[in-house]
Amino acid sequence: MRAKLYSLKKSSFFFKLLAFAFVTFLYCEFLHYYTTIFFCTWPDSSNAAVQGEVVRTMVVADTHLLGSRNGHWFDKLRREWQMHRAFQTAVFLHSPDLVIFLGDLFDEGKWCSTEEFSEYVKRFSTIFALPNATQLIVVAGNHDIGFHYSINPALAGRFEVAFRTASVSAVSVRGVLFVGVNSMAMHGDDCFLCADATKKLKQLHKELQCRQGAGPCDAEAEKFLPADDGHAFSRPVLLQHYPLYRESDKHCDGYDAAPPGSRDLLFRERWECLSQQASQQLLSLLQPQLVLSGHTHHGCTTLHMHPPRVIDANQVLAPDNSFSEDGDALPEDAEYAAAERDYVDRQQAAAAALRGEVDEPLIIPEYSVPSFSWRNKKNPTFAMVSITADSHGVYRCEMPREQTVVLLYCASFCLFLLSFVRRKLWWLAPVYNVIMRRAER
C-alpha cells in the first residue's frame, strides 16, 4: 500500500513539473508576445488641417530570412519563429489595413537559385501570412536582388513577379497614395533598372502636377497613377529600402537608435543611403508628406527640407513616443510637448507652402524603421503609422526582448531544479533519520 502511495506521489510530482515546464514554454513562446505588443497603440493623426479616412499601416523592415548559406539551422528556426509570432500577434491585436515591407525580406536573395527563391517566397508567405482584407506593399532591398552593379534582369524580374512590385510603383489606399521606389534603381546611370525608374518618376510627377492644378494634363499619355482613387491630389508617402541622403546617424536618438559607438560612422552614398542627387530628385518630383525607409537596422527620424538649405542642429524630428534606455515609456514632459507642437506648426507651414500660400520650404519627415529580426537587433521594432491624405502619425512598437525571454527560462529552470532537489531530499529524509538514530546509539 505504501509503495502504491509513493508511486502516486512520485507520478503527481513529475506531472506538476511537466505542467510547470509547459506553462513556462507557453508563456515565453506565445503569451509573452501578446502581453508586450498589446500595449502598442495606433497614433493619432488629428493634427491635420484637413482630415480624411485613416489608413492604419504596419511597417516592417529587414526581416532577413536566412537561406542555405548563412547561419545555423537552429538560429534560422528560432529567428523565424520569433518573427512569425510577433507579426501574427501584431496583426491579430491591431488589425492593420495595410502592411508594408521595406526590403531585405531575404538574406540570400541575391545569391540563391530559382528553386531556392521559390522556397523563400513560400516561407515568407507562411511566416507573414495576412488576412484577405489586409493589403500588402513590398519594395525590394539589396539582399533581395543585389546591390546596383550585381543586379541583372532575372534577379530583379523574379522579385517583381513574386511580390507584384516594380522599380517605381504607385498604390492608392482610401485616398492615400503610396509610392514604392527600388533604391538600387536610383544610381542615375541609365542602366535597365535606372532608366525605367527615371521614366516612371517623371511621368508620376506630371500626373501629380496635373491633379494639383500646377501643370498641364496630357489626356492621351499612359496613366501611371491608379484610376480608382477619385483623381484627388494628395502628397504621396514614399517607400524605399535605402534612407535618403544623410551624413550619419549622429542626430538619431531614442531607444531604437544605433548604439552610441556606431552613430558617428559616416554613410557612403549609394551603399548606406541614397546619393544627394537621387534624394533631391525624389523630393523634387514627389514632394512626399512622409518617407519610410529601412536598411540601417536602427531607428532614426530626420527632417528633410525642399528646396534644400542649410539645416540647423534641430533637424531631428521629436519622436512620436519617447522611451527610456531600457525601453520603458516615459511620461510626456514640457520639452517633448514643445517639440511636438513645433513639428505640427512646421508641417502646417509646409502644407501652406505646397499650396503656394507662403514662401517656405517643405519640411519632409523620414522615419527609418529598425530591423524586425532579433538576429540584427537586440530590441527589434516595427512602426504603426496612421495616415490620411494630409497627415500622419508614427508609433514605434517594441517587440519582446530576447534577453527577457532567456531570463524567464533561466528563472523557471532554477525553480524547476529547486523543486526537484527538494523532492529528492524529502525522499531521503527517512534514510537520514535512520542513520542519525544509529549514530546516537
TrEMBL record:
Needed co-factor(s): Mn(2+)
Main location: membrane
GO biological process per UniProt: GPI anchor biosynthetic process
GO CC terms: membrane
Pfam family, one: Metallophos
Keyword Manganese: yes
Entry-linked InterPro entries: Calcineurin-like_PHP (IPR004843), Metallo-depent_PP-like (IPR029052), PGAP5/Cdc1/Ted1 (IPR033308)
GO molecular function terms noted in the UniProt entry: hydrolase activity; metal ion binding
Record-annotated Calcineurin-like phosphoesterase domain positions: 56-298
Gene3D superfamilies documented for this protein: 3.60.21.10
Membrane topology of this protein: Multi-pass membrane protein
The keyword Manganese appears for this protein: yes
Transmembrane segments: 12-34, 404-421
Subcellular location(s) per record: Membrane
SUPFAM superfamilies recorded: Metallo-dependent phosphatases (SSF56300)
Alphabetical UniProt keywords: Hydrolase, Manganese, Membrane, Metal-binding, Transmembrane, Transmembrane helix
Entry similarity comment: Belongs to the metallophosphoesterase superfamily. MPPE1 family.
Protein name: Metallophosphoesterase 1 isoform X1
Organism of origin: Hyalella azteca
Protein encoded by which gene: LOC108681684
